[in-house]
Amino acid sequence: MAREGYGLEHFEASKELWAAAQSHSKNMKRFDFFSHTSKRRSALKTPALRVKRHGGNFRAIAENIAETGVYHLFGDGEAYINESGKLVDANGEPLPVKTYGELAQIVVGKWMDSKGHRKNILGNYSHLGCGVSVIFNAEKGEIPKLLVTQNFGAR
Fold first, then answer.
1. pTM recorded for the entire structure
2. Most buried residue, 6, 55, 68, 111, by CB count within 10 Å?
C-alpha cells in the first residue's frame, strides 16, 4: 500500500526472500541482537548471504528491520501483571492487543518516516519477503514484542 501512493507496482512475493527474512528474525531473537549484520553465523552475516543461502538469485537486495510492541499502551505507557498473571493497565484493565493490520501500519509507517527504509520500500525492487519473530521474556517482565525483517529483491 505504501508504494501505491507513489504510482509504483506491488511487490511479487518471494519464498526465498521470505525464508531469509524469517530466518533473520528468528536469529535476532535466538541470539539476542538487533542488526542487519549477524555476528553469530558468518554464512548468514549479511542480507545478501542470507538470501543466497535460501536459494534467492537477485541482482540487488535490500533489508529493513523493526521492533514493535504487540499491546496498546495508554496513559502512563506502563503495564502491570495482575494476580492471574495477565498484563493490565494501571486501572487493572486488560491491555488490548494490536491487530495484524495495526502492527503492519505502525511498522511500515515508521519505515516510511525513515529516509533509508523508505528508499528500500520505494526502490527499484520487484520482489518482497517478510519474516516475524515474537520476543517474550516473562522472567524479565518484558512486554511481548515483534522483530520484523523485510527483504527486497530485484532480478
1. 0.88
2. 111
